Amino acid sequence: MAYLGAAVALVGVLCLLDLVLTVGVIRRLRQHTQLFDAQIAGGRPALRPRPGHRVGEFAAIDTHGRPVDQDLLGPGTLIGFFTTDCVPCKELLPRFVDYVAGLGLDLGPEQVIAVLAAPEADAAMVAQLGTVARVVVQASDGPMVRAFDLSGFPTLVRMGPDGLVDAAGAVLEALQRPAAPAQTARPALVPAEAS
After folding, report:
1. Which H or E element spans position 68?
2. Is it true that the peptide bond before 75 is cis, omega within 30 degrees of 0?
3. Mind listing the pLDDT tens digit for each residue in 139-153?
4. CA 164 – CA 194 distance, rounded (Å)
5. DSSP state, 33?
6. CA 19 distance to own-chain centroid
7. Are 136 and 116 in contact (CB under 8 A)?
């Protein structure tokens, strides 16, 4: 009988320990869910670049053999960064194309650049992006990705004056936010070291 009582007490303690651990896991999952929801809603706190970031120097060639560098990044220029192996990129890409096409004549052909970060070009993605943008295909650690200090894909960027990022995010709503007010002495963020 003493063994039975000890076994029941041991099972009770193990159940209580399991309950405490389960509550801790649920609390942690809620925190992660809130962070994930913030990312989906465009509030990615860890996203780089951030508004005010000064874009570094870079040199690239688009799919038509034309040079692309930081001198093309005037106020209002849109840049979309996509990869071929990312599901969110493939979901956002047609919406990005529709968004840019819907802007009509507000943007000139030089004011939209799409960067496809992939070891080799995906012909369908290049063709789709090529209808509204100059397309650059480069490795995921290529010169444009480094110059913008990207933290992930997809990333959409709208440039402001003086080579500073005006808006950035992983969703179209980031580009639709009003432009940041112009400041004469806007400090540039120091890019984090690449990991």
Report:
1. strand 67-69
2. no
3. 989 999 999 999 889
4. 20
5. H
6. 38
7. yes
**Identity of the residue numbered 138:** Q
In whole angstroms, give the CA distance from residue 109 to residue 139: 24
Q: Omega before 154 cis (within 30°)? A: yes
- Cβ contacts of residue 111 below 8 Å, gap of 6+? 74, 76, 77, 78
What are all long-range contacts of 6-13, with beta carbons under 8 Å and residues at least 24 apart? none
Region of 90 please: left (phi>0), alpha (psi -120 to 50) or beta.
alpha
Residue 114's DSSP bridge partners are: 80, 135
Cα 96 to the chain's mean position, in Å?
13
CA separation for the pair 62, 6 (Å, rounded)? 74
Residues shown for the chain: 195
Nearest partner of 68 among 168, 147, 169, 121, judged by Cα: 147
> Does the CA dihedral 158-40-187-60 come out positive or negative?
negative
- End-to-end CA, the chain: 61
Q: 96-151 pLDDT, tens per residue? A: 999 998 886 566 667 899 999 987 878 999 999 999 999 999 998 999 999 999 98
